[in-house]
Amino acid sequence: MIRAARLLAALLLVAALPAAAQDVAALSWLTGSWRGPGTMFGNASEAVLDIRPALGGRFLELSYRAGGFEGRAFYRPDGEAHWRATWFDNRGTVFPIEAQLDGRVLTADWGSAETERGRTVYRLTEDGTLEVSDSVAMADGSRRDFARHRLRRSP
Questions:
Q1: pLDDT confidence bin for 114, thresholds 50/70/90
Q2: What is the model's pLDDT at position 19?
Q3: Are 71 and 89 contacting, i.e. CB atoms less than 8 angstroms apart?
Q4: Are the C-beta atoms of residues 99 and 83 closer than 8 Å to each other?
Q5: Is-contact 82 100, C-beta < 8 A?
Q6: pLDDT over 70, % of the chain
Q7: 12-46 per-residue burial string, b: 16 or more CB within 10 A, e: under 16
Q8: What confidence tier does 2 reach under pLDDT thresholds 50, 70, 90?
Q9: What is the chain written as a DSSP string?
């Protein structure tokens, strides 16, 4: 009886989740392995970006490497065209992320008042190139680009 009650409670919890929180298909165009050249802090760099469903398909895991920098985020849908994530990197930094999807462009605003703030834009072009640009918010409200890469899907 207790086992049946626990199973029923678990099923009710899953059923109570919004449908969008159960489906990461809206970003299927972004999934896969990507590699390509660009710049980071004014220096030439090569970036590697791997994006795949994770944790039973409820999240998209994003792993990024460029030069000696690497980070990982877990994205989940949070309503129509809206995503939330948490970013972790090898500096020991953890950022909250709020992202908006518009067609084949994902704009991720990251950071908080306690950390730095910035923006990463993932844009899939007509020719299949994934353009990834990173900027940091300055004290005057402007943004300063610090990285830009043009990635191609890897086999």
A1: confident
A2: 43
A3: yes
A4: yes
A5: yes
A6: 86
A7: eeeeeeeebeeebeebeebbeebbbebebeeeebe
A8: low
A9: -HHHHHHHHHHHHHHHS-GGGG--GGGGGG-EEEEEEEEETTEEEEEEEEEEEETTTTEEEEEEEETTEEEEEEEEE-STTEEEEEEEETTS-EEEEEEEEETTEEEEEEE-TTS-EEEEEEEE-TTS-EEEEEEEE-TTS-EEEEEEEEEEEE-
Report whether 85 contacts 100 (CB < 8 A): no
Are the beta carbons of 147 and 40 closer than 8 angstroms? Answer: yes
CA 55, distance to chain mean position in Å, is 15
From the list 152, 144, 22, the residue with the least C-alpha distance to 77 is 22
Tokens of 64: 């990024």
Is residue 59 within 8 A of residue 69, CB to CB? The reply is no
What structural domains does the chain harbor? 22-154 (2.40.128.20)
pLDDT of 51-97, one tens digit each? 999 999 999 999 999 989 999 999 999 988 999 999 999 999 999 99
